[in-house]
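thoughts on these tokens:
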Amino acid sequence: MIKAVIFDMDGVLIDTEKYYIQLGMDITKEMGYEIPREVFLSMRSLNRKFSKPMLLEKYGEDFDFEYFHAERRKRLRAILESRGIEKKPGVDEVLSILKREGLQTAVATATDMERASSYLSQIGVLEKFDRILSVSNVKNGKPMPDVYLEACRQLEKEPSECIAVEDSPVGVRSAYAAGLRVVMVPDLTQPEEEIQPFLSGVAQRLPEVAEYAKIL
């Protein structure tokens, strides 16, 4: 029986992944690299502990990851300050349904706690969640299961009693490794064949997650 739903943030609750991808391509091009969009898509939700060695292995030890990381964060901040945080369609609706059904909710994000809390506050949903968990709370970020296991611990629920809502393969793997049932809400890409075995379902609209909570 499902007792809680745990959401990823970027790409699920807020529309920010498109900026991460485009900025990644723009900045690395300025650095002299032609890195395909697919590389940055594969890095969604990937903690820097894992993304840094991946880029260094692909593009050499001379790749200035620290500059890249800092510059992308700086430019993203400027974009969000200018345009505001875009809430994904259906967020308020699905949270209202889940509350009405008596399910607990949490956020498990690769973003640090300060920014995660700020973003969720700006879209008016921070207080609607029972717990907010970020990479700041755990030893290892996604794709390791730590953040989902900690969310379950704080909610006092077994992983098997929880649904994870993710938009990226990295996040799907993280939640599945923690023992949660995973529903994917595609954002920039549709689910790849290799992660299909990890999914309990694919929701084309966020409110469909409430239906999965009833049937899983």
Q: What stands out?
A: The longest helix spans residues 65-83.
